[in-house]
Amino acid sequence: MTDRRFRARVPKVEDQALVQDYVRALWLERGLSDNTQASYRQDLNQFACWLNDRGYGLLQADAADLQAYLSWRIAEQMRASSTSRQLSCLRGFYRYLLRDELITTDPTLNLTNPKVGRALPKSLSEADVDALLLAPSIEDPLGLRDRTMLELLYGSGLRISELVGLEQEQVSLRSGLIRVIGKGDKERLVPLGDESVEWLARYLKGSRPLLLTSGNPATLFLSRRGVQMTRQTFWYRVKHWAQVAGIDKPLSPHVLRHAFATHLLNHGADLRAVQMLLGHANLSTTQIYTQVATHRLQQLHQQFHPRG
Description:
elongated; 14 helices
């Protein structure tokens, strides 16, 4: 929930002056951008409006008022990240007032930040993925290439940078394995499913030879000009096929990688195995996906259980 109720309102004149003096002081000391100044001003004005509704202003606020304000934000279901940012702004503001001897005690001194949980990765449903994979026209060399890349991205959980950087020698169709060079030049072996092997074979036989313009570059997936694709170029292709498939969900460069991990866990895969497939150095990085799986289980329970 956003703070819409405050956007069209302004605090009392004396509180506006305090906020403006503080923002000006920040600009002089730190050279903040216009956007950052506006953000500070908005956060402070919101708190001032809340105080004004209760009959007092910024100079009169004490620790109990700050705590009540934070509790109110939580009750209004405002985002913890937004509240944490606002509390940080208020700390700086009240330290400024204390330094200039406009107040005698800092009301933010013993306040703690609200706990900000890690955001769940955005993902696609299995139906969305199916629609995306079916979108490219495989009669066209570029369409067949894109279908193969999408199959490989979803079927192996590769990062886009790993996918576009693949060389032919890194792929063994006979063994059903890819030797991936990931972050920090760390190498890992990723198994290929039957679908990925089949589409790779079709691409190597039917599409790649048509995309070759000169020589035989090591790069596996070639652009229209016969050279290695950039991450940006492939991501434009993904967004194009998402539109063709009628997928209106927001997409990020990692969306199919997230779908790969989430769907594996939803079907009972071991977290440690998913960690190895994704190439995460620490299991804690992979554990975010257990939240996705747990969230899905909760949805299913609520939807189908008689007491859900």
